[in-house]
Amino acid sequence: MHVGQRLISCSSTHPHQQFIKRLMAISWLESWARHFITGFLGRFISTGCLILQEEEGGETFTFQGINTCKCSLRVILRVHNPQFYWKGIRAHSMKLSSQDQGEAASDGIKVSYHISRPFQVACLLCVGEGLRAYIILTAIDKYWELWSDHGLLNLLMLLIANGDANKSSAEVKRKRWTPTFPTALISSSKLFFKHAMRQNSLTQARRNISHHYDLGNEVFALFLDETITYSCAVFKDEEEDLKVAQKRKISALIGKARIESKHEVLEIGFGWGTFAIELVKQTGCKYTGITLSQEQLNFAEMKVKEAGLQDHIRFLLCDYRELPETVKYDRIISWQVLYYLKYTCLEMIEHVGHEYMEEFFARCESVLAEEGLLVLQFISVADAEYDELRRSPGFIAEYIFPGTCIPSLGRITSAMAAASRLCVEHVENIGISYYHTLRCWRKNFLKNQSKITAMGFDEKFIRTWEYYFDYCAACFKSFKLWDYQVVFSRPGNVEALGNPYKGFPSAHNAP
User: Which Gene3D superfamilies match (predicted)?
Assistant: First the structure.
């Protein structure tokens, strides 16, 4: 339900402030929804400060947390249309991504983020035909002069901080997700069912991977660095160049895998071929890489041909479950899709799926040479939150990586123990560098926004990816996500591990 609004013209010299303002004429239904939203926020905000500021003629609600030690962020969220409240209580979660993006397909809600003036980020919601609402997110904290583009990021970090503070022990034990409001049951059920149907079976896995990686190589090249590496870099400091940090990560993985010229190396999910080329140049080994993305395969083969390394490198378009057990690999390395042997898997075990973790390790066991090593780099969540999160139809699984399941470290090791003889030899968390990696990607993405739209991608695509970068950055900055490099071996592997003078290098100490 919506009532008529009296329009007031508003002019501004700034291009992003050229929008129509409305008085907050609010219907009884929207007023009822506002009561529930503000009541919820009053209970929810226990640290930091959130100010809900309505359009001229409306009200201002301040939610000041008692605990200022955990989070000192102060965020203003300006509402320019009262349907914000009604949409909020119908959403399947009181998270901005789920609330706005989650209904995009069915209700036509779109969210955009633009720098409206220094230290502000404007969020535009288009709700239905001819109806628009605006939200302005303003980051105001002691670092505000330095964080001119951190408005959305700070809002997400504020929500994360309060989510942790309000999570009860009963919710943790229940290990299942429920909507914030009873009015969201219908939308919640629809999204949950859709999420459940995206298990990574052999056929579905191809669809899920292609959904993301077949957007076009040109799109990824516009926000990644020159190495075209789509995983966490390893920074020595915040000012370091992304390309330098990515090369440090690659060198660290090669060192941890202890790859030599005599080795046969398998990489599960080879991305755009950067790791393969650098690996062969450094070690002279024989390399096999697999992927489910035709776009990546075509691009990588072109790069290998340009480098003149066709005799050492071969690429296959296949799933890890299709690898023949008769072929053995000394090392398995993967940073795009979780695959093989002395295995370095960079952040793609998330695409394997909860139901297939044991199958993945069993397949690695079957193709890994007896003295081989498996190296994985993967994003991880806390063990206590894993069951709840894997059942939740969240923003990433819905819009960015369909079918993804971010594992916990405990889930990885339990699958390893159940399906293989492998054991953990080395673990390192490089997650804090992912925050800096994502901020670099976001900066590059927005800098090349006009080029991306020229390729035929619409504003919804731009908004979704900008949200994706900030959403993930907030999680890593708040230590809700980690990024592990783990080396696996079999017991008694003297051949690979017997040299006491060749330990596992720290990624941060790599050249």
Answer: Vaccinia Virus protein VP39
Domain ranges of the chain: 7-170, 202-437+480-490
The two tokens of residue 414 are 């339990």
- Count H helices and E strands in the chain, helices first: 20, 16
Q: What is the DSSP string of 293-332?
A: -HHHHHHHHHHHHHHT-TTTEEEEE--GGGS-TT--EEEE
Which residues touch 470 (CB under 8 Å, ≥6 apart)? Answer: 113, 152, 153, 156, 438, 442
Range 80-107 burial, b when 16+ CB lie within 10 A, else e? bbbbbbbbbbbbbbbbbbbbbbbbbeee
* pTM: predicted TM-score of the whole model, two decimal places: 0.76
Report which DSSP code applies to 67: B
pLDDT in tens, 331-390: 998 775 333 223 333 345 554 567 788 999 999 999 999 999 999 999 898 999 888 877
Computed from CA positions of residues 212, 216, 221, 227, in that sequence, does the dihedral angle turn out positive or negative? Answer: positive
Tokens 């079999």 — which residue? 490
Count of CB atoms situated within 10 Å of the CB of 195? 18
Domain 202-437+480-490 part of CATH 1.10.3110.10: no
On the 0-12 / 13-18 / 19+ scale of CB atoms within 10 A, 170 is exposed
